[in-house]
Amino acid sequence: MPAVAIDIGTYSVKAISGNPGAKPAIKRVAEVFNTTGLAVPTDDASIEKMALLVESVFADYDLPRNEVRVAIPETVVSTKVIPLPPLTDAELASAINWQAEQHIPIPPEELSLEYQVVFRPKGNDKQPMRVLLVGVRKTVIDNYVNLFHSIGIEPILIETQILSIMRSLQFVPEDPTTLIVHIGASNMNMALVHQAELKFVLSHLNGGQLLTKALEQTLAMDATQSEQYKRTYGLDSDQFQGKIREAMMPAAQLLTAEIKKSLQFFVNQNPKESVKRIVLSGGTALLPGFVQFITDETGAEVLVSAPFTNATGDVAPQVNQPSMTVCMGLMSREL
Prior knowledge:
The protein is α/β, with parallel strands linked by helices. Among the domains are: 77-136, Dna Ligase, domain 1, CATH 3.30.1490; 171-309, ATPase, nucleotide binding domain (Nucleotidyltransferase, domain 5), CATH 3.30.420.40. It contains nine helices and 13 strands. The model has no long low-confidence stretch (mean pLDDT 95).
């Protein structure tokens, strides 16, 4: 049955329709400018504004409405991986709410909680088990559901962006230790994956718009022109005598400082390990010169996500593929 995956960001709304599964068959890909600037519905007024935008995407691209999968941004989610003594499934179910109170900064009565065992020792192995906790305020989930209900859609899946990205990237235990860096317009989310296992998630409340604003302030451009110049010339020192790069450099260095903190955080916890690879996703990943800049700053191998690698169907060449990583992760989930 055809499905739709939708990822609402502050800059744009991304959507993919097709047949879901481990190898999705893509029918349509859409990215529409978000005229509201809103990514999270918080009240009736924002729900109404966002609903009109989302309805227009479904109508303009003739997207099916019967199997809709929705991503929610990491900024409204608390994601933790915690160690626990080895427990049976029944023991874990009894203990999980108490554990959530210790690790998730949301009052229990307001918490919508999901959990998953990511590692359980076998036999006489004395290691602790590790459990992934994902907590969201119930009001956040309710507002997303109400948004889609208002346009006649019942979402079948609501998932955090990072979990969708991990599925899209299809990690295997043999992969090198990798830091996922998902750069949206207004935030940057980082997830450390070691031996195909999620270790931690960190969020930073700055994203690609920080680079745009740097151009506005330094070169006295308006927002539209700044965005265009950023996307066209990026951090390429050969363009405009390097003036665009120079104007964006302080903002770019602020972003890389947060990336370096995440790398160091993992090394501090695992002194015998190192992060060998960074994978960039989100629209900012394709800025000219950006991959080389991150490589120079961190010394790691830097790759850009290619979410359509295992998909079939036609994808227009002008599609910003890294920005579709979340949607492809949603499409790849088998329900």
